[in-house]
Amino acid sequence: LVCKTAQTLSSSTGIMNEEPFLSSFTVTPLCCPSRSSILTGRYPHNHEVRNNSLTGNCSSALWQKGPEAEAFPIYLSKQKYQTFFAGKYLNQYGKKEVGDVAHVPPGWDQWHALVGNSQYYNYTLSVNGKAEKHGDSYEKDYLTDLIVNRSLRFLDDRSPQHPFFLMLSPPAPHSPWMAAPQYQKMFSDVQAPRDGSFNKLGKDKHWLLRQPVNPMPNSSINFLDDAYRKRWQTLLSVDDMVEMLVKKLDSMKELDNTYIFYTSDNGYHTGQFSLPIDKRQLYEFDIRIPLMVRGPGIKPNQTLQAPVLNIDLAPTILDISGVNLSTVNVDGQSFLAPSLRNGTARPFFLVEYTGEGHPTTDPACPKLGPGLSQCFPDCVCEDAYNNTYACVRTLDSKNNLQYCEFADSESFVEVYNLTSDPHQLENIVKKVDPTILQAMNQRLIKLQSCVGDSCRPWCCVERILGKFDLLMIFRCFCSKYGAIVVNVINDSFNRVCVPDCFSARFNNVTQ
After folding, report:
1. At residue 502, does pLDDT exceed 60?
2. What angle do CA 120, 121, 123 make, to 5 degrees?
3. Which segments constitute the Sulfatase N-terminal domain (predicted)?
4. Which of 143, 166, 271, 436 is the most exposed place for a label (fewest CB within 10 A)?
5. Whole-angstrom Cα distance, residue 279 to residue 48?
6. List of E strands, 256-342
7. How confident is the model at residue 178 (pLDDT cuts 50, 70, 90)?
8. How far apart are CA 46 and CA 105, in angstroms?
9. How far, in whole angstroms, is CA 482 from its chain's centroid?
10. What are phi and psi of 374, to 5 degrees?
């Protein structure tokens, strides 16, 4: 968060007292698969959108027939919500081979979606299924401003008899980083932060992290500093958008009845491990995302430490709308549930990504051969076909770990203890007990094939049972959920699921 947004959301006037989530993550650090996870509440291996290409199922026919037809807007529509979307949807949206602009995803009453990837000027919108072309006039065409103006009109025209939902997806701070005219000279003295892993050698990491020149040449540093400033400049219009919406809701006397979520689809790096600019990597700077929430029942100016994922947004929104979540196929969980407020949080989660590359040599970087992409500036490639990985991120009161496996010829593994090494400078895979590595591998295998409830093995319904053979019950639940903790009191017991069989313990057992 930069500039006015944090101030607007935390205004001393109390207009937008919010709850920041300090451990908010995306389950995949790239636009299209992450947005697909937001819409469906599912991990990428379940919605099958792997990257930003049509062949990777980004807004493909398979996506439209399957996951999109089960996304959360459909459930909102059934709950009589008036729904509005404006801005970037999915990177390949509007392609002629998959329905062109006439395709309007089900569940949306008002649809103002950008065709293709982020633009600020000279773009095409699908407005309720019809093409609307825009030019380069700031007053008429600047996309961030257009989004907020149309959302305000929707609020004016809505029926007061039914609830409403708006999803606003501005292009900022995505490239090509075109700030509004009044903001183009802002932050002239700002540069990307130089702390943490900035300009550090990617030692003992996947080969893609070992290929950048270290230290970075001045040309790369100047490029990333310029990108960093321009990103901030574009976000000033997003700040204006937030402020206008909050004030509009306040003037309508609806602010106290409305939940507002402020988040992003992925993180970003600017110089970390000598990678100039991009996302797609497994590290904290690419998988952590901002998340601030304001709404009924949320105490102002509090923070939540428990991990929250972008796959939790859909079930949370549906939970607010009154949908019975047991009827919805999601991998995430509602983070407004009382259980989470009382401290029942996920102890671990999955991060997965499928790399992209060019089948032929990139003209910008011929020396590295085929199979790579995003090779800029100075022939530093940010992605490759074998930049394909899956990670278990463990984060609870005792552990702060990451275990990752790459699908490459090396079967490369990276392991980090973020308690002692928050910037992930040292891959400790060779220092970890092999039995722990094996346990992490087994946990990862389970997560990579999980669906729905099995993606949340700790969310077991508490049950009171009669007197049973504890060992038999343990084995049964262990095979289904991973493990249990058993408390036997007065000839009955409560079961609570915990991560894996290897970590299970019997506590407070009495006969």
Report:
1. no
2. 100
3. 21-323
4. 436
5. 20
6. 260-263, 269-270, 277-278, 291-294, 308-309
7. very high
8. 19
9. 26
10. 55, 50
Cα dihedral 114, 27, 417, 388, rounded to 10, equals: -80
Following DSSP, what letter does each residue of 401-418 receive, concatenated? Answer: EEEEEE-STT--EEEEET
pLDDT bin (cut points 50, 70, 90) of residue 18 is low
Beta strands 484-489 and 506-509: pairing type? parallel
- Do residues 292 and 335 make contact, with C-beta atoms less than 8 angstroms apart? no
31 catalytic? Reply is yes
Contact 73, 83 (CB under 8 A): yes
Per-residue model confidence as pLDDT tens digits over 332-382: 999 986 545 544 578 999 999 999 999 998 777 888 889 999 998 899 999
* Nearest CA among 301, 319, 305, 404 for reference residue 347: 305
CB contact at 8 A, 89 and 119: no
User: Any idea which residue has 């389950």 for tokens?
Assistant: 27
Q: Look-up: residue for tokens 């000033």?
A: 236
The model's pTM is: 0.89
DSSP, residue by residue, 85-120: EEEE--TTTT-GGGTGGG---TT-SEEEEESSS--S
Task: Please compute the mean of the pLDDT values over residues 376-391 and round it to a whole number.
Answer: 94
* From 3, 31, 404, 497, the catalytic residue: 31
Distance of CA 206 to CAs 96, 175, 261, 306, 490, Å? 37, 26, 35, 29, 53
3-state SS of 117-129 is CCCCCCCEEEECC
